[in-house]
Write a structure and sequence with these properties.
By secondary structure, the protein is α/β, with parallel strands linked by helices. The protein has two domains: 160 residues, Rossmann fold, CATH 3.40.50; 119 residues, N-(1-d-carboxylethyl)-l-norvaline Dehydrogenase, domain 2. It has 14 helices and nine strands. Helix 9 crosses helix 12, helix 9 packs parallel to helix 14 and helix 10 packs antiparallel against helix 11. The longest helix is centred in the middle third of the chain and has 29 residues. The protein starts with a strand and ends with a helix. The relative contact order is 0.10. Bound molecules: NADP nicotinamide-adenine-dinucleotide phosphate (NAP). The site of NADP nicotinamide-adenine-dinucleotide phosphate has 26 residues, from helix 1, helix 4 and helix 12.
Amino acid sequence: MNVAFIGLGIMGSRMAANLLKNGVNLTVYNRSSEPAEALRAQGAKVASSANEAVAEADVVFSMLSTPEVVRYVFLEDGGALSKMKRGAIWADCTTVNPSFSQEALAAAQKHGIRFADAPVAGTKPHAENAELVFFVGADESLLSTINPYLEYMGKKTIRIGQTGQGASFKMLVNIMLAQSMIIFSEAILLGEKMGIDKDFLLNTIPNLVVSAPFTKFKAEMVRQDAYDVQFPLEWMQKDLHLAAVTAYEHQQPLYLANMAKELFAAASKQGMSRLDFAAIHRYLEQQ
Ligand SMILES: NC(=O)c1ccc[n+]([C@@H]2O[C@H](COP(=O)([O-])OP(=O)(O)OC[C@H]3O[C@@H](n4cnc5c(N)ncnc54)[C@H](OP(=O)(O)O)[C@@H]3O)[C@@H](O)[C@H]2O)c1
């Protein structure tokens, strides 16, 4: 099978490297050339456009930034979908909104392409160590074709349901992630104001049953006030925006996630967009 991977950012570069480690015949494309060149040294063929990368592929993975970018690369007239072989599979791992996944499915079907949404849980180290969890929206037969590749890149695949439901579930995970980080930060900041030792707070709060377990991995960033990017703050803002759009489509109020969205928007405006999303702590501390 020929496999293509489009989008070699923080996540995509590591996911593609794991495909190569497992001997997959892989063609890669990235808008800026450096990440693709790094993978050439590991055995990848490097294409000069997304259209060229997908032309011979049986399975195409994409890990781009936003739905707008996925639309631009794949769906527009003359875009990558129009260059894929009929019957090939496109698995989009980008975090997008479920409505966009439906739009991608409809466009793929017009070109005779089979489509799955396959967003991931996990961040940079999980991508590096093939420990991602895939939330897949697709029928069973499509999933069984791509699952060997998902297993090279992750530790678990969960089929949520039909197309769009992988994206739906991922959205739930991220609205909880965003709000939990804010809750953690507020507790630390108030604790400090009340005179409790910061190290004690950072060592103790993540281990309480009321805390989100991932805060253990963010405590060190907060302690050092160093937010080297794993999950960019700008993509958390994007995910909260997409959740707000989705909630509107369903006429479902989303009070606190919308408030979180505005906090991440403000932090982004303060120049924190390419820091890790845990930098929301620095933003709250400065208020
Ligand atoms: N990082 C995480 O922890 C994490 C975890 C789970 C899910 N996600 C999701 O996974 C996706 C990728 O995240 P990431 O952290 O890998 O992001 P990233 O490092 O910012 O990478 C974004 C990718 O999109 C490409 N891109 C952006 N604009 C483009 C355009 N106009 N045309 C073509 N390509 C374009 C970038 O190319 P260039 O290299 O040329 O800029 C890069 O390959 C996002 O949807 C994010 O929400 C991220």
